[in-house]
Amino acid sequence: MDTRADTDRIERSILINASRERVWRAISNAEEFGAWFGADLSGQVFKPGERTRGPMPMDGCVHNFEILIDRIEPQNTLSFKWHPYAVEPGVDYSSEEATLVTFTLADAPDNAILLTVVETGFDKVPQHRRAKAFEMHQGGWEAQLRNVARHVGN
Fold first, then answer.
1. Distance between CA atoms of 145 and 118, rounded to whole angstroms?
2. Which pTM does this prediction carry?
3. Which of 58, 69, 80, 103 is 20–30 Å from 48 (CA)?
4. Distances (CA, A) of 29 to 32, 49, 59, 149
C-alpha cells in the first residue's frame, strides 16, 4: 500500500485482485460502499450533485455520514465532498469548506486493479480541527482500502 501525504493531501493506494467491474461496483454502488465503509446507506444511489446520508456507528456512538457526490466517470473515477472527521455531536459543520475525496481505478499486472484514494483540502479545514482530521484520515484511508479489498474478496 502506498502511503504518501503532505499537509493538504492524503493519497493511498492498494492492489486488488478482482475485476475492474467488481471494484467499481464496490465504490460506486451506495449500498456496497456503505457496507465496507461502515455506514448504512440502504436504498440510496450515488448521483452527481446529490447528497448521500446515513448513520455510521463508530467508537460506541452513531455519527452522521454525509457526502455530496461530485463526479462519476464509470469504471474510472468517483469523487465526493465531505467534512473530514466531523464527529462532534451537535456541531454544525456546514459552514466549513469540504475536502474532496477522489477514487480512481487503474489496470495493474495480472488482471489486478490499483485503487487509489486522494483526499485534498485539509489546509482549508478550520485550524482547531485540522491536525486531528488529517491524522484520523491518514490511518482511516489505509483501513478503508483494506476494507474494500476484503469486501470484493481479495
1. 11
2. 0.92
3. 58
4. 5, 16, 25, 15
pLDDT digit string (tens) for the chain, length 154 residues: 544 447 899 999 999 999 999 999 999 999 999 999 999 999 999 999 999 999 998 777 778 899 999 999 999 999 999 998 887 777 888 889 999 999 999 999 999 999 999 999 999 999 989 998 999 889 899 999 999 999 998 6
* CATH number assigned to the domain covering 9-151: 3.30.530.20
Helix (H, G, I), strand (E, B) or coil at 96: coil
Q: Where are the domains of the chain?
A: 9-151
